[in-house]
Amino acid sequence: MKLALLQMTSSNLVKENLAKIEKFLALNTEQFNLLILPENFAQMAKYAQEKLQTQEIFGQGFVQTWLSDLSKEYQCWIIAGSFPIQSEDTSKPFARSLVYNPNGALETYYDKIHLFDVAVSQSEAYCESNDTQPGLEPTIVEINSFKVGLSICYDLRFPELYRYYQQQDVDLLVAPSAFTYETGRCHWDLLLKSRAVENLCYMAAVNQTGFHANGRRTYGHSQIISAWGETVAELEEQEALFIYELSKEHLAKIRGQFPAHTHRKL
Fold first, then answer.
1. Strand order in the sheet with 94-100
2. Residues involved in catalysis
3. Half-sphere exposure of residue 72, counting CA atoms within 13 Å on the CB side?
4. How open is the CA angle 229-137-80, to the nearest 5 degrees?
5. Checking CA distances to 4, which of 28, 207, 208, 256 falls within 20 to 30 Å?
6. Which of 175, 212, 132 is nearest to 39 (CA)?
7. Distances from the Cα of 71 to the Cαs of 64, 100, 202, 220, in angstroms?
8. pLDDT tens across 104-139, in order?
9. β-bridge mates for residue 96, sequence order
């Protein structure tokens, strides 16, 4: 399966971000089966109210229609990082990863479970739970014979989610992200490789990069990690689309030679 990741610097303007995605795809000449967009691909809101104004009712709205049309146009699967979808509490939408098949139909979705309520430093703090409704359930989707486990950004710090996916025989873990620069330079590589190695899965993590309208700086360094913990494809901090072909044979070989997943005692 050929996997495409688009690393970008999203602004607070939805149409501007969608046009940027269209431009990168139009310039690409290589075919792919699955496109993964980063967390907040359509908008890095400048303030909470902006996100509330952008949120859509599940199953309808400009961005969801755009994603459906895009998947049909490129005849590919799309895992659309995260987008605010209205919950029962209209002041707290879900951060929802939407999955479309090549026919443009919504296949499934995942709502971000772990919310980013942390102080990165004395001058940089976040409380995502103030304006986001947490999800409750993991989500698995089968794409081109690969079982894919969904997650978003801060989920990476909670290995029990990925262990659940490993127990369900998942082949690929995905983590669309908007990882901050400060946490990214210390923890990004470590977390991605740990989740791949301990679960003997591919890990595909596409990140936001650069400076955003809300003053936040994100880390970039989107990458694909093999089940052996090797970085097989990676960007630095530039906006770019990159493509890598995953191999079921690679997974079978690593799992056969090093079957740590069969040795669990707890």
1. 106-111, 94-100, 77-85, 34-37, 2-7, 240-245
2. 39, 112, 153
3. 10
4. 65
5. 256
6. 175
7. 11, 7, 23, 24
8. 999 999 999 999 888 877 778 788 899 999 999 999
9. 83, 111
